[in-house]
Amino acid sequence: MFLKSQMVCAARGPRPRFPRVWKSRNRIGTISKSQKLVECVKGLSNVKEEVYGALDSFIAWDLEFPLIVVKKALKTLEIEKEWKRIIQLIKWMFSKGQGKTMGSYYTLLNALAEDGRLEEAEELYMKIFSQYLESLPRVFFMKMITLYYNKGMHEKMFEIFADMEELGIRPDGSIVRMLGDVFQKLGMLDKYDKLKKKYPPPRWEYRYIKGKRVRIRVNQPDKSNAEACTSLDNK
């Protein structure tokens, strides 16, 4: 300790730091790497061998599979609505045995539906449904019902809804409205009445206002939102 203090005193304090005359643009991190992955995927063709080869070379020097980088790249591609690239990237990730989560499956299902690949979307849904069954989240049923509603495939809608009721999964308001609309178009007024009686419109809904979760009464024209809000913290 004594020698070290002598050396510092002899050098008249620590060495001064001068500003660098050059600046590096090579930032190391998951954000910059995910951006490079997005640029790499966008520049590829639709040939499977070329896509998989380019992605394999992109992660060739990684000791572990860069799952976080791929997830961030998928989020960016989803915002930009690059559905074909999302499908390519997720299928390549699955071929490596990585990222097989409910979130990835739903992203792939949504991309297939948005890209108009109905048969592939149905095949993926049936595979997930048969594998997970009771633990399948409600958003998968909602996505398939919405897809069939937009395509006018009413019988398929009823099959998905029957599976939901059998598994005890309660539909949300949008599904009830779509089913009620189809029942009215087909003249099934008795089923429409049963649907409305079993799943009445909710009196309350939950929103986030200034970072706080609050409960708001639905369809109250006489009251303002400030009067209708009741915070869960006060209950």
Automatic annotation (TrEMBL):
<dbReference type="InterPro" id="IPR044646">
    <property type="entry name" value="EMB1417-like"/>
</dbReference>
<dbReference type="Pfam" id="PF01535">
    <property type="entry name" value="PPR"/>
</dbReference>
<protein>
    <submittedName>
        <fullName>Pentatricopeptide repeat-containing protein At4g21190 isoform X2</fullName>
    </submittedName>
</protein>
<feature type="repeat" description="PPR">
    <location>
        <begin position="137"/>
        <end position="171"/>
    </location>
</feature>
<dbReference type="InterPro" id="IPR011990">
    <property type="entry name" value="TPR-like_helical_dom_sf"/>
</dbReference>
<dbReference type="InterPro" id="IPR002885">
    <property type="entry name" value="PPR_rpt"/>
</dbReference>
<keyword id="KW-0677">Repeat</keyword>
